[in-house]
Amino acid sequence: MSLASVLSSLPLVVERDEGLRLRLLSGLELDRRQTGLLIVGIVLLFAMPDLAAILGFSFRTVSKGLMLGMAALGLNLLLRHTQLVSFGHALFFGAGAYAVAVLANYGGVTSSLVLLIGALLFGTTIAVFVGFLVAGHREIYFALLTLAFGQLGFAIVLGSQFFNFDDGLSVRIEGARPTLAVDSLLGAELSTAAYRILLYYLTIVILLALLLFTWRLANSPFGKTLDAIGQNDLRAEFLGVPVQRYIWTVFILSGAYGAIGGGLFALLELHVRPQPTLHVLVSGEILLMTLVGGFSTLLGPIIGGVIVVYILDLARFQTEFHNALAGILLVAVVIFFPRGIMGSSDDIRAGAVQVREDPSVLGVWVRELGARVRGGLRNAVVATKHLLFGAR
Amino acid sequence: MLEARNLRKSFGSLVATNDVSLQFGKEEGEMVFIVGPNGAGKTTLINLLTGHLDPDEGSVIVHEPDGAGGTREQDITGLEPRERVDRGLVRSFQIVQVFEEMSVRENVRIAVLANQDLQGSVFSHHDRHEGVEREVDELLVEFALEDDAETPAEELPHGDRKLLDVAMSFGLDPSYLLLDEPTSGVGTREKERVIETVVEVSDNQDVTTVTIEHDMDIVSQYADRLIALHQGAVYAEGDPSLLETDPDLRRVLLGVEDE
To answer: Largest CB tally within 10 Å, which of A68, A129, A381, B80?
Structure first.
């Protein structure tokens, strides 16, 4: 029996004109190269704790990046499909994180699973209310309203005894961590390192499920209808699409992603404070992640999440201006890679081929870049002059 | 039958629609053309009928068969545009309204998915509904867009964009189709092709069409009935030969006022 016939008898493998395909979902079929990339990606994800130990990078930061990446994945549902920009997505991330802290603190809940479900339910509920109020608005009004709700959440938590103000809440109950399902199996309490690794595995399982769901959604009639709303909501309405209800629905979904990410974040950090979860800068970072990774792609927000969190975490120890770095990063991405890393991957590959064939092209690019920067500076100087002294 | 009953709409001191009562589709599948000078209230009338605007007074009525040989009146004045679409009332806009970044096929598919109540389906693949794909293919052929099926809407020539716009409306399986200048901005030679296609498809499907048109040659060639609006009110109504026989009408249409 040949290898191909063995392969094609596997339940997920289908035969197409172009060769064998790995069929993950109806319509989601990967060719050989894509299957290879998928396997490498999954192996890398699962091997991350060991890789981190060997290569000496912070595996906790990667975890954090994936969790914020989940929120970015949710935000990207709005950005990619309905073309709505939310400046307040930290609200749902924070709602998930605080739901875990409150349940542990006041409810005495120790099971991670129950805590996560609590995070999902609470964050989604918030999204139901906020979504209802913002779904009728577009463009700048939508962005400002989400910003306002985000700030409202931050202000409430910061000023409230129940959430312990600026100091936040611990997720530990009398010093004990929440339990993962395997705790009881092992019989002994896990070390903190082992807990983090298991939590990481839980995170990537949830992440893979979210990615599959996101792909399904993006390629479903519903996803395409959301695209239509984003491109022309007037026409969508006159095609019989309940535009406002659909925006509300996708807003709720997008909040739910953030809530799960926030819940996992609380389990990772074991202490929830308002600044790293609810602050407007977190909302900005979530948005930045989707832009850095590429908002028109499925994986972009996750990759952007890991990269942005990693860069910002590194910078925190190097410079006092680490917050400015997010701004610099944003400017750089918008100018050089407006479609983000994943969105520009074809351009980058084509560029690499060009350089290999003719290295002198690099010089041309540098000159072009120089011209662009000079032109930009000149415009800035002229604009400033006009502002200060008036145009003549 | 679609009926406008004493519709009135003002914008400040401007009376855009002044006590308009009209009936469309008394004979199923009739082609009505609305003519009139700029500012006569043609687009406002379509906006009122389709729910893009709410009238100050009056009502929009749909007469539906009651199953016993008669008809039943349904007042749809307060309904949302999309609820009117469910009742077969579909429109196009004067400026092409399509989904620019989508291909021609995807544009038409959105309409057909909406018509078959599949637009909210999450757990299926957008292009794997056989019934939908069949209908999309038929529409593409009817509107001669099959060669451009994979072209993004924004890259189509203007005439084809107009046709795509109308094709999407037909994807909703309308009973009444209200077209706001389907030939506006289309070159003279293209015009013929656009209107010819629209007429042919609506004839085949027995759709009652209400079309705003400025080109009187087209009106006299294709209209079953003509409605002339002037200063928000119905100025004349009847056979398109009115254009020849009523000298006042011609003057009004050209916007030449008696001093």
So the answer is: A68
